[in-house]
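Field reference: sequence -> structure
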Amino acid sequence: VQLQESGPGLVKPSQTLSLTCAVSDGSITTNNYYWNWIRQPPGKGLEWIGYISYSGSTHYNPDLKSRTSISRDNAKNIAYLQMNSLKSEDTAVYYCKQRTIWGQGTQVTVSS
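Structure field:
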């Protein structure tokens, strides 16, 4: 499995972030696979955001749950992350992860 994140790079405060995680060499519906979103703010540790499972169920970090939505497109083999009401503290590198496999990450900067 290979993962490739993509996103807008720069987002203004209060706007909504939309990221994609393209899955290749594997299926997003493979049994017992969980597609996680994780982020790392500059100078800080990793923060788990949430996941969408092989069955389509989702689970979120309670601290981010109210602003976050993870979904998927089975036909396109893509997982999505949406986060609204962005703040400067949401500036981070965002990663897609499945078990021990990580994407290369995509930088998101929240700034006016």
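Note: DSSP finds no helices and eleven strands in the chain.
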